[in-house]
Amino acid sequence: MTEPVTAQAANFLPGPVLLLGAPGVGKGTQAKALMAAYGIPQISTGDILRSNISNGTPLGKAAKTLVDQGTLVSDDLVNEMVADRLKQPDTARGFILDGFPRTLNQATWLDAQLSDDPNTLPVVAISISVDYEQLLHRITGRRISPAGRIYNIYSNPPRTPGICDVDGSTLVQRPDDSEAVFTERMKTFQAQTAPVIEHYRNQSRFEEINGDQSVEQVTADIEAALIRLRQYPNS
Predict the structure, then answer these.
(1) Second label for 6, Cα 20 to 30 Å away, from 34, 77, 101, 216?
(2) Share of the chain above pLDDT 70, in %
């Protein structure tokens, strides 16, 4: 097994990190682990959008008009918000991108944006890979108690089907955890994000990690991959 390299985190400059992978592979969990290890922020386009709208910034006002009309916020507007966020001082050592770049157009914009700053490292992409059937089980098998306890009927079932082990409450399946919704999300992923994976794979700034392991082992593999990519970017 690969040993975690968190002990080296204080002296390691992770730079911009993009976590990729299909819905349910565990990107959010791994992003939190990397934030803790390296002291870098997670940059979520959803959070940026909500922050701009709530603060009434010029970008937020433009976005709110589109949202109120039921129109998707354009790539150009999202790019402007990301560019503004990357100017903040907490990104100096690096950052983890969440939900961006989601398309090839956004990826090429990001590369150009980062290359304009000689003090910023290029983004490295790490794709977490899990077998389709395993992902399907992770999503559709999820059951949640009213208190937020999470079970999975395949990998972590309650002792009594449909009942929380702790308080005896009824477990529910969220509407978003249905097979129909998962199938649509996978179609979107294949259409939009799969080309982003190939974009970075072709630039030798990419590694694929087996996500069908313990959370701790996936974290260790990601940290090791980051060090390899920063030390030997063209290997």
Answers:
(1) 101
(2) 94
Residue 2 domain-assigned? no
What's the pLDDT at 4? 46
Q: Which two tokens stand for residue 52?
A: 């701009």
Taking the model in full, what pTM does it have?
Answer: 0.81
List residues bridging with 151 in a β-sheet: 143
**Range of the structural domain that residue 219 is part of:** 13-40+93-230
Q: Is 73 annotated for ligand binding? A: yes
Angle at 9 between CA 6 and CA 13, to 5 degrees: 140
Active site residues: 27, 102, 142, 174, 185
17 annotated to a ligand binding site: no
The CATH number of the domain where 133 resides is what? 3.40.50.300
* 3 band by pLDDT with thresholds 50, 70 and 90: very low
102 annotated among ligand-binding-site residues: yes
Q: Answer whether residue 72 is part of any domain.
A: no
Determine if residue 88 is labeled as part of a ligand binding site: no
**CA end-to-end span of the chain, whole Å?**
22
